[in-house]
Write a structure and sequence with these properties.
- By secondary structure, this protein is of the alpha+beta class.
- 26% of the residues lie in helices and 35% in strands.
- The protein has a nine-stranded antiparallel sheet, with no helix packed on it. The protein has a five-stranded antiparallel sheet with strand order 1-2-3-6-5, with helices on both faces. Strands 4-7-8 form a three-stranded antiparallel sheet.
- Helix 2 crosses helix 4 and helix 3 crosses helix 4.
- It is globular.
Amino acid sequence: MNYEDRLTSVLDTFDESRVRALLEGIELSPDRRAAKQITKRITDSGHIRTRFVRKTAAVAVAAAAAVLAAVTGVAIALSAHKEPIDERFGSGAGDRMESRALLDGSVFDSEHYRMTVDTVLCTGEQLAAVITLEPKDEETAAYIRNGQMLTLSDREYERFGEALASQGCTVGNGGFSSSIDESGSTPLVSLRLNFDCACPNGKTCSAPLGIYDAGLASDYAYTSFAALSEEDQESRRIGEVTLNIQKNLDYKEFRSKDGIRLGLCDIGFRCGAYHELHAFEDTLSLTFEMKDGSRIEYLGSDIANFSVSGGTPGSGRTSAHFTRWIDSENVAAVIIDGTRYEEVSQ
């Protein structure tokens, strides 16, 4: 039985008087942001099926779910999967995001999949998202285990960008990857997105994003999908999720002895100088010196997407997305190709 079935099974046994008794006098959560997130996920009737809950108001259902999670330890399926986040950003990243209310957890259904937007991270200039698809039947589960890959169509990316641009948010250079997690009882297939973006501070921009079946990895999925006609690509559309994009990460400022600025966040960096990162050759020289004295080295495989402009050291611009979460608050210095960037004291 999956997490959602477990939760709804418990709620199904409650009548109104028992729910009210359970709620009376109980502090739902010491973290108001977390309680607010849980309430939002469960009461969003456009995404979550609530037919199992009888004789209770939506707000009481949300509160009961929060209490159940806190008191009994029942994991709520409506919250984001942390396993795909850990796979994308490294062990423990899901817990760190949860503690900072960076999980999304919006759920969307299609015919064969339950789709969860695990997280959407945005600095106002860089965007990263993880979307997980869980099979709703055994045939789909078997297909995932055979090596299903997910993708976006060129036209879908254009539609996504147009929808955001109409709200004042733009996305530019980016990329995506797909992976399968079979560590649990049900296989999950995830889509990881990385984009450069320009998002207004303090504003939430929302846009639908269609997800497509690229085929099996053994069939050179991305290449074969791109070769299909637009009509054939559309026939492989799995479903659609909505990404809610808002600035929820900040850059921490570092500076070289020459005064060049580098902004570091947990998912990437931007720098006011040209650095040849060699991201595709695993010869990247990127080192983080941590405040506890330890050093963390990033190789080319730790870079998901990077862009450079200029062409000569000391000029231009470099930006990069990380495939591993870096705890930027505990970084004291960043060293790129021998150039040292020290933390700027606030």
